[in-house]
Each structure stands twice: as structure tokens, then as C-alpha cells.
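Entry 14. Structure prediction run on the chain below.
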Amino acid sequence: MTAQHRQLVVTLNCTEFVEHFAACSALPVEVRHLKFDIPWQEIAARRSGQVSGADAVSDELRAAFYEAEVMFAFAPPRGVAQLAPKLRWVETPATGYDQLNGTGLLESEVTVTTVGGLFAGTVAEQAFALLLSLTRRSSEFRALQLVSTWKPLPVRELEEMTLGIVGLGNIGRAVAKRAKSFGMRVLAARRVAEGMGRDVDAIFSFAQLKEMLSQADVVIVSVTGTAETTNLLDSAELAAMKPGALLINVARGIVVNETALLAALRSGHLGGAGLDVFAREPLPSDHPLWSLPNVILTPHVAITTPSRMPRAITHFVTNLRRYCSGEPLQDVVNRS
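Output returned:
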């Protein structure tokens, strides 16, 4: 196939990873690497469903979008579906796809894929890093270290604790597997109480969520952020948790009502929280979560590892081979 008849693949913000697309040279495609800057505040707004209108794009981008059949982009411009009439498939190098809200892609006939469970283990590690920071009182010992003070404090062990997982997808299953290595009893809640898996001791539906929460010493939130899961853990759900229980959120900030969470932490009903995600990101500097002594915060870093983009590109190139040969794509988003 001649170059002018090759299918156009547009990537956004991948110029520093060009070498990882080398395998595309054997495929009947032209890969064009372009740049589109987007502030993280907009990503958070998209994920909260608070976007409208369209982004201004350069003439170069507009021309590329018009011809593109395939796109590899974390967060393309708002309204891109209208700019790309030939577009058939988009892959986002992420586990979730809510950063595509406002682009028109999720409402279109364009096939959307993610990287599926590629980073599930990495996110599960972050969940346990936050959990162990709380149970082993890392921030308190760090503060004592800075003033050269030797003060042994009692710590908690995970073995024989009961863990409740909210959401049993790829990340939830990775959490369950690691929890078993710590000797924990594992419960999980999902939309429908089925498909328990070998590392889960009992499964609950979301309708039974409070029942699961009442049994858990630790709750790890790993469910996809959608309209259905917004405020899934609200005042009533947090009140159902054991006094002194710990909450870890590595999913989306909108899943846990932050006002209710603050109240539960301030009252002492919850023993602590480890949070990697927030309803507004970056978290405003005056937000009270910063100053609570029983909270560990990280700035949405669960998958910010050096291998993230190379691994995501490898996933995309594998899918691109399948696309070019007419095979079914992997990790297609089900929007039905």
C-alpha cells in the first residue's frame, strides 16, 4: 500500500516516546505525532462531568483530525468527534476513560479502548502503600525523625483484618490477591454479586454495600467513576463502617462524598483515610483534607511510573496490529 493510501494514526503528546512506535513501520499506517496541552484541572472537570463546549485547536491538529482513522490519546480536545469524521477507533493510555467526557467520542460510533488491567497491580500497590502508611504510622514517625525524637508508638498489623473492596474489576482483583498475601479476610462489593474469584471470601451487590462495609476493618475503593458510582459512599455508607475503620481511595474522587468523609474523619468515626484521588484535582491548597492528622494524601500518582507510557504504547501497537488485520480489539469500552 502506498504511503498516501496508508491509514492515518494520530498520537497526542507522545513525541518523547517515538521509538516505542517503531513496530508500526511494518503496518499499513502513517503515524503522526502531535501535541495538545491540557491542564490537569480540566481532566478532573471532565471526570466529574463538568465540561461543555469545544477546545480551540491549531490548524495542524484540525487537518490531522480530519484525516485520522485511529487516535492514541489520553485526553483529546473537547469536541474532537466533530473534527474527525473518518475516525473509527481511539485508544486512551489509561485504565479509565472518563477523561474522554466532553470529546463527543463516548456518544459516537467510534470504538474506544483502554489499557484494561495493564496497571492494575501498580494501582493495588498504591492502595497498600497508603494503607501501610496509616497502619504503621509513617507520617508520625517521620515527624519524630525530623526532631530526632525516639518515641515507639503502637502499630497495627494487617493479618486477620477484614478488607472490603468496593469494585471488583481488574484493580479490585489485584487488591484482593495482595490482601491474601497479608493474611486478610477479603470481601468485595460490585454492581451484581457474581464472579467472586479465588481471592475473595464473600461477594456483595451494591444494594448490599452497607452490609459489607459494616464488617470491614479496611475499605479500599477501586470502582470506576461513573454517574452510577458518584457518591456511592455517602454519609449513610460511611456511618455503616466500623468505628475506627480505615478508608483507601485509589479509584475516583467522586465515588466518595468528600464532605461526608471529612465529617467522619473529624468525628473519629473513621480511624483514617489514604487518598490518591479527589473530586477536584489538583486538590485546592486550602482544602481541609491537607491538614487532617489521620489522612495520608498522594497527588494521583498510582501509575506515574517510568514504564507507564512505554507499556501503554506496547498495548496500543498490539491492538493496532489487530486492527490492521481485522481482528477484534482488546479492552473495548462497553458503552451499552
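The chain has a mean pLDDT of 96.
Filed with the rest of this week's runs.
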